[in-house]
Amino acid sequence: MKLFVYHTPEQTPTGQAPDCAIAVDVLRATSTIATVLSAGGEAVQVFSDLEQLIAVSETWPAQKRLRAGERGGAKVAGFELGNSPLDCTPELVEGRRLFISTTNGTRALKRIEDSPTVLTAAFINRAAVVNYLVEKQPETVWIVGSGWEGSFSLEDTACAGAIAHGVVEQSHLPPEDVAGNDEVISAIALYSQWQKDLLGLFHHASHGKRLVRLDCHEDLKYCSQTDVLAVLPTQQEPGIFKSKS
Fold first, then answer.
1. Residue 24: which region, alpha, beta or left (left: phi > 0; alpha: psi -120 to 50)?
2. Measured between alpha carbons, how far is 150 from 208 in angstroms, rounded to an integer?
3. Neighbours of 96 (CB within 10 A)
4. 63, 76, 124, 225: which sits with the fewest CB atoms below 10 Å from its CB?
């Protein structure tokens, strides 16, 4: 198994697909996806385009759907939810499908949707992702950070490093044996530096600062937790994720 870390979707090789692709958008799309599925949501369907989201969700009974839209960190007008995982309580989401579009995370998922296996990862479900990789041993694995509008995001690369670090620990292999590119080594180093203070890392990150300005302090605290959900969001068909345990 070789791991490759890409800081943004735009950095992934064109015309290629790995055996397993993992999208990371810690703040907050992949944290929200994991939370919804862990809380009993029927599925999460992702869209990069808001109009397409509305059109597809209209084909579902109103009582069986929720629409979540976020642009620039703020909730899209007319949608029930923004992109806060804390709003996704079991009472609200159980048995319902979440139709979601965000600034960055859904774009990353679109880029990798043709891979045979597509997962989503955040710090909160990191262990489930690591366990899957160690058990299944896919030959090539891309861990793709969502970034922010094409730019590097500190928290996404740190999470990629947390996944790679977990694989190294469980497989008892040196990092250079699993690293397919230099970014894997740098991501492990970043995570190792901050693993005991992820909330502090978020406060240094540009998107973390953006969310602080939007009074999303509790979201940062929630998303900084590690290994608290056992859910493994897995693509069942393009853009549609369900829980795999």
1. beta
2. 16
3. 18
4. 63
Phi-psi region at 139: left, alpha or beta (left = phi > 0; alpha = psi -120 to 50): alpha
Q: Kindly give, in sequence order, each residue whose CB lies less than 8 Å from that of residue 33, ignoring residues fewer than 6 positions away.
A: 44, 46, 98, 100, 120, 233, 241
> Tokens standing for 218?
């509790």
Write down the pLDDT at residue 86. 97
The per-residue pLDDT for 151 is 87
Distance of CA 26 to the CA centre of its chain: 6
For position 6, what pLDDT does the model report? 97
184, 5 in Cβ contact below 8 A? yes
Query: CB-hemisphere CA count at 13 Å for 170?
Result: 18
Place 228 in a pLDDT band, splitting at 50, 70 and 90: very high
- 90 Cβ contact list (under 8 Å, min separation 6): 39, 40
Matching residue, tokens 């970043």: 190
Residue 155 neighbours by CB under 8 Å, 6+ apart: 26, 27, 198, 201, 202, 205, 207, 208, 223
Q: Does the model's pTM come out above 0.85?
A: yes
Name the one residue in this structure whose structure tokens are 């670090």. 165
pLDDT higher at 63 or 103: 63
- Residue count of the chain: 245
End-to-end CA separation in angstroms for the chain: 21
Residue whose C-alpha is closest to residue 76's, from 61, 92, 58, 54: 54
Phi-psi region of 71 (alpha: psi -120 to 50; beta: other; left: phi over 0): beta
